[in-house]
Amino acid sequence: MSILPVNEPHTPIDTPRNFFIYGATMSGKSYLAEHFPSPLFLNTDGNSLAQSAPAIQIRNIKNANGRGLKQSIITQLDEIIRALQNEHHTYETVVVDVIDDVCVMLEQAICADEGVQTLADIGYGKGFSMFNTVLQEMVMDLKALPLNVVYISRAITEGEGIQAHEIPSLRTKYYNIVNGNADLVIYTQRIGKRYIRKVTDRRKEYIREQIDDPKILRILDNVPGVYDKPVQTSISEQNKIIKQQEEQQQIEGDK
User: Fold this and answer.
1) Average pLDDT over residues 109-121
2) Which of 53, 82, 122, 233 shows the smallest number of beta carbons within 10 Å?
3) 217: helix, strand or coil
């Protein structure tokens, strides 16, 4: 049997699977992530019991003498990813909440293993190289899973006055690694009782008719800015979708 595909046209299937969600505290980041299909949260802020979705608390645990680690986040994440790869389960989405803390804890774990205070103390740039390798491996291993992957990040304000705007609080060099493997970047904002979501970056122009997962489609239909070049969706139908998004966001804001 030939390894070559049949030489005939096929209907494109193009469903985004990797997402980066950022916003200020209480802006609806985790709430949005909970609406992804069958999510497993990898939680870092000790708030895992405050949400309905299953969660695993991610953390470094020091030895009793304060030297070295009894539990390393690097080992813990590796075990979780291998379990998601090899064990039978019903999860469809893994949520890293929040990626900012994960990066800090990865640094701490490397420093603890090397017996130093900071990555710079390892010398010759080796510490930073080790960190980049660990972070890239984690991101690529998560991307390789047959699951949706959602990274959640806090936000900070950049600029002043009318130029002020919120950006991910994740350090730029770390953001570039994570975002380089994301399909959509979604910003969440709370204004009074209203919760607003919008796409601020995307890998490509997604066509609604080419997204084959109805569960993901249901989420994306409520996030303005996902689609740019519809194939079969008329202007009037697009306006109807936008109106439904606004009404849904207003309902969520009134809860």
Assistant:
1) 91
2) 82
3) helix
pTM of the model: 0.84
Please give the backbone phi and psi of residue 34, each rounded to the nearest 5 degrees, phi first. Answer: -65, -20
The third-level CATH classification (topology) of the domain covering 18-254 is: Rossmann fold (3.40.50)
User: Cα angle at 130 between 127 and 135, to 5 degrees?
Assistant: 125
For residue 229, the model assigns a pLDDT of 54
DSSP 161: G
Contacts of 22 (CB under 8 A, 6+ apart): 29, 152, 153, 154, 155, 166, 167, 168, 169, 170, 185, 186, 187, 188
Cα separation, 249 vs 36, whole angstroms: 16
| Contact call for residues 134 and 76 (beta carbons, < 8 A) | no
Confidence of residue 230 (pLDDT cuts 50, 70, 90): very low
Cis peptide before 139 (omega within 30 of 0): no
Helix, strand, coil % over all residues of the chain, rounded to 5: 40, 20, 35
Number of neighbouring beta carbons within 10 Å of residue 34: 17
- Compute CA distances 156 → 24, 100, 160, 182, 218, whole Å: 7, 12, 12, 20, 29
Render pLDDT for 71-99 as a digit per residue (tens, 0 to 9).
Answer: 999 999 999 999 999 999 999 999 999 99
